[in-house]
Design brief:
The complex is a heterodimer of chains A (187) and B (126). With 187 residues, chain A is α+β, with helices and mostly antiparallel strands. Chain A contains six helices and five strands. Chain A has one domain: Histidine kinase-like ATPase, C-terminal domain (Heat Shock Protein 90), CATH 3.30.565.10. The longest helix of chain B is centred in the middle third of the chain and has 19 residues. The chains are: A alpha+beta (187), B alpha/beta (126).
């Protein structure tokens, strides 16, 4: 019992240290709802407004967080059939020259090829290309039942000016874990 | 026509639509989870307005932030005003953006590339 407690304390301390070293200001694992989205974005907004970060960067971090979180709340799949929650992990870290917003969620394997293709296409475009794609998509799209417009990734790529980082880790024959890293340059 | 006057929240904008006084404005933040639910009555109101529009309509967008789902609905709103322009009435979109926010200016420019309505860009500082 005593050993277990010691182990947990050690874990909590290591986690704290890792977060400090990497300037991770937020880590969350759990259900992602509109309430959670509002809470995290306003927390981040408050902590950024106390920092010396420029308004432009603050706004971009806010924008990208909203899109990432709403992506999870609309598109994440469950680990198993019985599970209905849309869960994910969210992490915000500050580096010397950029902010990273990392999100992860479960996705059905059958959706992976299309998503990959979509992300590859977005990453192949420059600023003008992204703007053209956005204008084309916004005209053609309709709001889905889940309330999405299918514009989130394009918007993140446009606003960050950085390539989207992504990875898929297959968990079993049904689902994979999808990790998205959005990088916002400071200055 | 009835007046629409909706007070903004953390995730929904202020909306004023008043034909008699000529006030048309959407301002603040728009990131609702369900955009259709929030904007339905606004789109319905504009449909009704389009049947008997004022000779000149000045529509103010002063948004601090909107999510991509809202960006689609904003286009739907603009398309309705484009029809009013086509019917021979005058419409001007006043697109307000904060001086630090190039992204908001660009969003306005992208809309003006898509719809045939004159846009005025108005910069503000806090």
């Amino acid at each position: 019992m005593e050993k277990e407690k010691q182990g947990f304390l050690e874990f909590a301390y290591q986690l704290y240290k890792t977060m400090k070293t990497n300037e991770i200001s937020l880590v969350y694992e759990g259900e992602v709802t509109q309430e959670i989205t509002k809470t995290f974005t306003s927390l981040t907004e408050k902590s950024l407004s106390k920092s010396a970060e420029s308004n432009t960067v603050q706004k971009k971090v806010f924008n990208v967080m909203v899109e990432c979180l709403q992506n999870i709340s609309k598109h994440a799949d469950a680990l198993s059939e019985e599970d209905e929650e849309r869960r994910g992990i969210v992490m915000v870290s500050k580096g010397d020259d950029s902010y990273n917003i990392i999100t992860g969620n479960i996705i059905k394997n059958e959706k992976v090829p299309d998503l990959k293709k979509n992300l590859e296409h977005i990453n192949s475009l420059d600023k003008e290309g992204l703007s053209a794609l956005f204008k084309q998509q916004i005209k053609e799209t309709t709001i889905s039942e889940k309330g999405g417009a299918g514009l989130g990734f394009i918007d993140i790529a446009k606003k960050t000016g950085s390539k989207l980082g992504y990875q898929f880790k297959e968990l079993n024959d049904k689902v994979s874990f999808f990790i998205l890293t959005s990088t916002i340059k400071r200055n | 026509m009835e007046i629409i006057n909706i007070k903004g929240t953390d995730d929904t904008p202020n909306v004023i639509l008043d034909k008699a006084s000529g006030q048309f404005e959407i301002s603040g933040r728009s990131l609702p989870e369900d955009v259709n639910q929030f904007y339905e009555q606004i789109l319905d109101w504009i449909d009704a307005y389009a049947k008997e529009p004022n000779d000149r309509t000045e529509f103010n967008f002063k948004l601090e932030y909107f999510n991509t789902a809202s960006s689609k609905v904003i286009l739907d709103i603009l398309l309705k005003f484009e029809e009013i322009v086509e019917s021979g009435k005058e419409v001007v979109i006043k697109w307000h953006y904060h001086e630090d926010e190039e992204d908001m200016l660009e969003a306005g420019e992208e809309y003006s590339d898509i719809v045939e309505i004159p846009f005025d860009y108005i910069v503000y500082t806090d």
